[in-house]
Structure formats: C-alpha cells, structure tokens
Amino acid sequence: MRAITILGSTGSIGTQTLEVINELKLNYEILALTANTNVEKLAAQVKEFEPQFAVLMNEEAAKELKYELSDLDTKVLVGQEGLIEVATSDEVDLVINSVVGAAGLFPTLEAIKAKKDIGLANKETLVTAGELVMAKAKEYGVRILPIDSEHNAIFQALDGENREDIEKLILTASGGPFRESTAQDLANVTVEEALNHPNWDMGGKITIDSATLMNKGLEVIEAKWLFDIDFSDIEVVVHPQSIVHSLVQFKDASILAELGLPDMKVPIQYVLTYPERTENRLERLDLAKIGSLDFEAPNTELFPCLGYAYKAGKTGGTLPAVLNAANEIAVEMFLNGDLSFIEIPQLIKKVMDQHQVVQKPGLDDILDADEWARAQSWKEGENLC
Ligand SMILES: NC(=O)C1=CN([C@@H]2O[C@H](COP(=O)(O)OP(=O)(O)OC[C@H]3O[C@@H](n4cnc5c(N)ncnc54)[C@H](OP(=O)(O)O)[C@@H]3O)[C@@H](O)[C@H]2O)C=CC1
Ligand SMILES: CC(=O)[C@@H](O)[C@H](O)COP(=O)(O)O
Ligand SMILES: [Mn+2]
C-alpha cells in the first residue's frame, strides 16, 4: 500500500485523481486531502476517503471544516504550513500537486526536499521556478511525473528513448473556443463563452488560459524544464480535436505520439500506476468514427500570449514568474468582469515590459518578482478598465 497526498483535491484534477483511485481500486491509502476554501466539497471527500489529514488555506474555513468533521479522526490543518506538513510527512510516498497557480510552488519544493515523488499537474510551479525546481529534483533524486496531458504524452513517447536523439517536441493546442474568431469577435466575448472549452472540462483559470493560448505558452515553458529542451526545439501546432496529445520528433525523422479521447483520467492513471499500466473501462478511441484529424499553425497575432510566453522563457531569469503572475491576476480580473478578454494580453505585456529582469535568480528573487508583478498587475488592470 502506498500513501498519497492530493494537494488541491477539490478541483478538476484532484477530484478525478480520487475517482481513478476509487474506480480502479488502486493500492493507495489517502493520507491527506487539501483545498483552498471549499469546506463543503472537502468535507464530503473526507467523509468518503477518511484521510489522516485535511488542509484548508484559511483559519475560518478550517474551523468550519473541524466542526463538520467532529465525528471523524481526520486532523484539520491550516495554511501553507499545513500544506507543507502533508506534502513532506514521513508516511507519504506520492504527492499529487493539483493546486492552481503559483501557490503550488512551495509545497512542490518542500516535497522534493523531503524526497517525495511528485505527480505534477500544477504547471505554474515550473513556469515560475522551473530551473530551480528541476535542479532540486535532481539533487534529491525525486521523480517529477507530468500529469498535464501534453507532457504526459511526451513522457510516454520518450520512454526507453535517448535524450540525444530528440530533434523537437511538438505540443498540440486545441485552439480554444475562439479558434475561428476574428479580432472584432474577440473584442466582445463574454466570460461564459470563454469558459466553454471545446474538448476539456477543467477549472476556470486553465480554461481561460486555453482561450487566450496562454495555456500553451505556459506548457512550452513547462516542457522546457521537464524535458531539458531548448525553446527553439519546442513547436506548437493547433489540433482542434485534442486527440493527438503531443508528439516527439527524433533525429531519424520518426515521430512518436500518444493519442486518445480527451480524458484527463488517462494521464492521471498513468502517473498513479507508473511504471506499470492497469486495465480500465474508459471509452476507447475509434479512429474510423473520428474520420479525420486537423492541424494548423497557431494565430499568434490574434492570440499574442503564446508569443509572450516564448519571450519570457527565452529571456529567462525572473521574467517567466512575472508572465505567470500577471496572467493569474489578468484572468482573475476577467473572471470578475473587471477586464475584457482582449485586455488580458495587453495587461500581461504592460507588466512584462516594466520588469527589470534578474538573471540567475534565487528563490527570493523569484518570490519578489511574483509579488511585484501581482501588485503591478492590479494597478495597471485598474487603469485599463
Ligand atoms: N483541469 C485539467 O484538466 C488540467 C489542469 N491542469 C493544471 O492543474 C492545476 C489544477 O487545475 P484544475 O484542477 O483545473 O483547477 P481547479 O480550479 O479545478 O482546482 C484547483 C484546486 O486548488 C485549490 N486551490 C486554489 N487556490 C489555492 C491556493 N491558493 N492554495 C492552495 N490550494 C488552492 C482549489 O481549492 P478550492 O476548491 O477550495 O478552491 C482546488 O482544490 C492547474 O495548474 C492547471 O493548469 C493541467 C492539465 C489539465
Ligand atoms: C487537458 C490539458 O492538458 C489542458 O492543458 C489542455 O491541453 C487544454 O487545452 P488547450 O490545448 O486548449 O490549451
Ligand atoms: Mn495541457
């Protein structure tokens, strides 16, 4: 029996992780479940899975949860300290990080230092501090197993291959709900339209990132650090069906890909059972029924966030942390109705242009840049709207 901590268990990935463990009766003891503020959902999960620990990010919510769980033995912890305690506990074997945003960085770093393997959905960790996180993972001999569908596909395609044989990585992008829109259309899109992803049912923040193509930009940076590849060897191609989850091109012109219906339970299961594969009852891909698969170049004029991410990644230093933080605030403002869809990239560019990049940053430099970018984004965002 392996013990697992799921950070962000109430979200889209966290919930599906619990479902996979349950449906396949995988050999995991649920040690800890965590959420930000969602007392109701976390309480329901705790009642079902009876973990040793449950964590919420603020005192008030934790108090409510304690009251809800007064009949159970589950210990309720609070805040960053609580997250770190359950991510580093001696008992835990695997930490799934399915928190959204740069809030996932600290528990990832602490789990690595405690030599815990990590199933990583939280791409913002690697965007913000990829070089540092991967160096720590190497130092502590920790495996970072990618859950993000594109990176999981590449991870599978690279199994048994030599790194030196890779020519390039090709990340597929659905193109989001506005793939066929004009600049005029984009000026008037609503939050509801932007939250309507054509293929995947995901949390709000990543769904907006998909609509702006920032998700693919974050994934380019995530791929750079996970697979140690130059940005010039990472290509993005739009593939509206999201059946080919990404590809690796080798020096002999061979291309390997992982395909399947768009269902996050597949990469989640791969990580939970790695290095084994386990039979499941998920719907199978029927290629004849699908008929054809389409590919096209991304429209970086209409969706400039992808270009901003390449720029941040290639510049390096603290700029990716600034890109990420500005994006988090821009998306929050858009979801709150305080920014229009086309103002998301405008705000990110403004904040990136104002940043004095620190090269070879330590963790403190990255945290300072993140804090500065958030404050600056709120300020600039208020000027824009
Ligand atoms: N959903 C998907 O299919 C995919 C997601 N990813 C990545 O996985 C991560 C999670 O995405 P998703 O599951 O969609 O997100 P959700 O918004 O659905 O869930 C986020 C989870 O994190 C918790 N959380 C939010 N803010 C904080 C915080 N500040 N500190 C601690 N916990 C917090 C939430 O708690 P609460 O419920 O209380 O708010 C919730 O449990 C993201 O980085 C995303 O980019 C990658 C590939 C696919
Ligand atoms: C499921 C997953 O991994 C998401 O990151 C997905 O890729 C989002 O779709 P886009 O390709 O539209 O960004
Ligand atoms: Mn993805």
TrEMBL record:
Limits of the 1-deoxy-D-xylulose 5-phosphate reductoisomerase C-terminal domain: 144-227
Annotated binding of NADPH, by residue: 10-13, 38, 122, 124, 203
Residue ranges of domain DXP reductoisomerase C-terminal in the record: 259-375
Binding positions (Mn(2+)): 148, 150, 219
Cofactor needs: Mg(2+); Mn(2+)
Pathway in which the depicted protein is active: Isoprenoid biosynthesis; isopentenyl diphosphate biosynthesis via DXP pathway; isopentenyl diphosphate from 1-deoxy-D-xylulose 5-phosphate: step 1/6
Class in the EC hierarchy, top level: oxidoreductase
Reactions catalysed: 2-C-methyl-D-erythritol 4-phosphate + NADP(+) = 1-deoxy-D-xylulose 5-phosphate + NADPH + H(+)
Keywords tagged on the record: Isomerase, Isoprene biosynthesis, Magnesium, Manganese, Metal-binding, NADP, Oxidoreductase
Superkingdom in the source lineage: Bacteria
Any GO MF annotation of the entry: manganese ion binding
E.C. number: 1.1.1.267
Residues in coiled coil: none
UniProt domain 1-deoxy-D-xylulose 5-phosphate reductoisomerase N-terminal: residue ranges: 4-130
Residues engaged in binding 1-deoxy-D-xylulose 5-phosphate: 123, 149-150, 174, 197, 210, 215-216, 219
GO BP terms in the entry: isopentenyl diphosphate biosynthetic process, methylerythritol 4-phosphate pathway involved in terpenoid biosynthetic process
Function text: Catalyzes the NADPH-dependent rearrangement and reduction of 1-deoxy-D-xylulose-5-phosphate (DXP) to 2-C-methyl-D-erythritol 4-phosphate (MEP).
NCBIfam families assigned to the protein according to its UniProt record, in alphabetical order: Dxr (TIGR00243), PRK12464.1 (NF009114)
Record-stated family: Belongs to the DXR family.
Protein known as: 1-deoxy-D-xylulose 5-phosphate reductoisomerase
Lineage: Bacteria, Bacillati, Bacillota, Clostridia, Halanaerobiales
